[in-house]
Amino acid sequence: MMPASADTIYALSSGALPSGVAVLRLSGPRAFDALAILIDGELPPPRKAALRSIRDRNGGVIDQALVITFPAPNSFTGEDCVEIHSHGSRAVIAAISNELGRLDALRPADAGEFSRRAFENGKMDLLEVEGLADLLQAETEMQRRLAVEQSTGRLSALYDGWAERLTRARAFIEAELDFADEEDVPDSVASQVWDSVAALKDEMQRHLTAGNTGEIIRDGFKVALVGEPNAGKSTLLNALSGRDIAIVTDIAGTTRDVLTVDINLDGYLVRLFDTAGIRETQDVVEQEGVRRAIFTAETADLILILSDNDSPPKQLFNVPRERILLLRTKTAFRSGTHCGTFDLFVSAMEGIGLDELRGRLRAEIENRLGAGQTLVPTRARHKKRLEETLIYVSDALDSEGSDLAIRSEYLRLAATSLGRITGRVDVEDLLGVIFSEFCIGK
Question: Is the pTM of this model over 0.90?
Answer without folding.
Answer: no
